[in-house]
Amino acid sequence: MINLEGKKAVVTGGTSGIGLETARLLLQLGADVALCSRDAERVKATTQQLQEAYPARRVLGQACDVLDAEQVRSFAEQVRQSFGAVDALINNAGQGRVSTFASTTDEEWETELRLKFFSIIHPTRAFLPLLEQSSEPAIVCVNSLLAAQPEPHMVATSAARAGIKNLVRSLASEFSVKGIRVNGILLGLVDSGQWRRRYEAREDRSQSWEQWAGDLAKRKHIELGRLGRPEEAARAIVFLASSASSYTTGSHIDVSGGVSRYA
Ligand code: NDP
Question: Quick check: CB of 141 below 6 Å from ligand 1?
């Protein structure tokens, strides 16, 4: 059992899906949690909800776009004032882009590459001084299996994800002297905000979520026959964020239900 009593963690994109379940699990295991996302109302509601569920922990929420360096710096300053050191930074905020090479404009390429890289670069830079004050610091980047197994209908996201896999390895090397471990998870299809949004936009309006998600799992050849649950991703994230993975750095855990076709 992982015990995070006295630990402090930061989760970007902590108001929905995987980020929210990660925040919940961190609190459940004893950590104080700071979270952010862009929607101020959602941040307020989520922070309140988590604080009520875990009254013995500290929950800090701030509206912050991870693509805005100044907002991220201000979030980190708020966390410094409340928490001091940070033991784990979970770079989770983001979403995928569905488009082929033919349908992706230069501007869309730039937007996607910027989202994937700077959603990690800004928080990592801003929280580095706080991570350096921890005795067991770790960074976890939420990545996609597309990094290793690209899909032509998500060409820009796939290419960007491959870059992130590479970046995780470089950060692990550069930060090893500081004792900061850097790892990622490779997700397949997880039932969260982005898939619910795609379901809402479905063509066949007669399909229920269960039918739609079941067909998707078949079409994508998911060995375990279903989409992943956000809490299944959260468990892998928390493992990498905690000292339970103390001898692991520069690596990625596959959380894809067997979608990966490489050994
Ligand atoms: P959700 O849409 O449920 O959650 C995304 C969270 O990120 C929300 O809290 C959202 O809040 C926040 N967010 C998005 N953009 C920003 C931003 N620029 N700055 C700050 N917060 C932001 O999606 P998931 O839980 O599925 O996604 C979590 C991560 O997992 C994402 O990086 C996604 O790309 C990745 N992933 C997910 C997969 C899946 O199948 N679900 C597969 C592969 C990767 P708000 O909109 O208010 O900012």
Answer: no
